[in-house]
Amino acid sequence: MTSLVFRHATSDDLDALVKLEDRCFTEDRISRRSFRRFLDMPRDRLIVAVAGDELVGYCLVLMSAATRLARIYSIAVLPAERGRNIGEQLVREAEEAAVDAGRIVMRLEVREGNSPAIRLYQRLGYRQFGTYRDYYEDHGTALRFERRILFYEPSREFPAVPYYPQTTEFSCGPAALIMAMAALDEQQPMTTLEELK
User: Fold this and answer.
1) Contact 90, 57 (CB under 8 A)
2) Cβ distance 110 to 128 under 8 Å?
3) Which among 28, 40, 30 is positioned nearest to 134, based on CA atoms?
4) Exposure of 106 by Cβ count < 10 A (0-12 exposed, 13-18 middle, 19+ buried)?
5) N or C: which terminus of the chain carries fewer CB neighbours within 10 A?
6) Both 143 and 168 in a single domain?
7) What range does the domain containing 181 cover?
8) pTM attached to this predicted model
9) Per residue of the chain (197 residues), what is the pLDDT tens digit?
């Protein structure tokens, strides 16, 4: 079995991408012109799976400039290569590329009757949050899924912050500042006088 390589697509992949699209889909195909535009769009990511010299899969990820969302716009694997977890690996590569681009959430749409894809996305932690009626060319319904892909993990221990209750209706800010200062300096007074000062 030929090993797989995952990489970002280049303009040299254009013919193979169009050929793969034609073999995988009968409707809702991405055109050559659109593939070329996606290849030239620096914000988006087009990841390909290559076995030997053959392009066997791709995942197109769109990155919105206005939000921290990424969206798997299309994913395809050659029918003869299915069963090798290429789709799962493409999704993981797409998530990694989106995280590297500072995206927090990955979204996607999947045809309502595509049970294998729905099971894959659910297994990877995606949850359904909506539905698009009349979404596909044949008027089919799409299910909308999303997953948080970027998680905050503090890189160090943070100091304990002592609690100081504000003593007036207008000193919320000073009370918060006193707590922050006391977390960094044990000698920081936490008194009403300090709060009012």
Assistant:
1) yes
2) no
3) 28
4) buried
5) N
6) no
7) 159-197
8) 0.75
9) 678 999 999 999 999 999 999 999 999 999 999 999 999 988 999 999 999 999 999 999 999 888 999 999 999 999 989 888 999 999 999 999 999 999 999 999 999 999 999 999 999 999 999 999 999 999 999 999 999 998 876 667 778 899 999 999 998 999 999 999 999 988 999 999 898 88
- Pair (53, 132) in one structural domain: yes
Dihedral class, residue 28 (left if φ above 0, else alpha if ψ from -120 to 50, else beta) = left
Q: Are residues 76 and 129 in the same domain?
A: yes
- Interior angle at CA 191, CA 188 and CA 195, nearest 5: 90
Which amino acid, residue 140?
G
Number of domains forming the structure of the chain: 2
- Tokens 């990511």, residue located: 45
Is 85 part of any domain? yes
Query: And the tokens for 169?
Result: 């209706």
Q: Are residues 137 and 168 in the same domain?
A: no
Confirm whether 166 is domain-assigned. yes
> Token pair of 44, please?
């988006």
